Sequence to fold (287 residues):
Amino acid sequence: MSQRKAFILILIAAVLWGTTGTAQSFAPSSAHPVAIGAIRLAIGGIVLLVFVVIQGKFYIKRWPKLTTCLAAVSMAAYQPLFFSAVSWTGVAVGTVVAIGSAPILAGLLEWLFYRHIPDRRWWLATILAIAGCTLLASNQETVTISPLGILMAVGAGLSFAAYTLFSKKLLEQHRSETVVAVVFTLAAILLSPILFLYDFSWLLESNGIIVALHLGILATAIAYLFFARGLLGTSAATAVTLSLAEPLTASILGMVVVKEVITVQILIGLALIFSALVFLSIRKSSP
Fold:
């Protein structure tokens, strides 16, 4: 797969992830964020599993058990860590720390496991994107800093970085759609106890089921299929940096759909993230 095609697939995945916040704003007020995260993963896992079974590509043999389990645990851990971080330290700070720490942690993991150090272009693009995310977060009127919340947010960032690294390893031996289906099915099983801890009656409401299906099918199943295929053509660290298109999308949707206030600070933050993604996407594009 060409690098340019890989970048496009990952950016599409990030755009779909970026719809999550806006979609959740339409969920019933009784829907707890952790419950939304659990049902999102459950629906996504079921859809992916049915997809590969229909295609006749589902199999359970020849899977490296440790790598598969680590990928599933990483994805399962991301949900409660991220939503707990948001609960403890606020949406703005929790989201930025989780998403902003992921590229750095992905680069560190690649160095630890494969002794691969990202080039200077990657570092510059990552710094620009993180600076843009920080501006978006600090624009909020109230910012709460909780050490435990920050720790959970970093844990969420580490979980996503680890999922990306382990998934890329699995993609060396298995088809992308099968990898995503197996990993997400296992992750959904790991999170299944949450289904007994929260109220899910909100799923009986029309807007509740629509939001759940959107998050599970579009923002999870389809998004991670694109992300996995994109991983075939780029490094884990680069893929995670490109995923910073998620807060870019979320902010634009917030302004257009939710009618959030537009400030100069937001515009500068969006410009920094967009510039970083363009800068990273044009790398090595010439023959």
In short: The chain has a mean pLDDT of 84. The two ends are 15 Å apart (CA to CA).
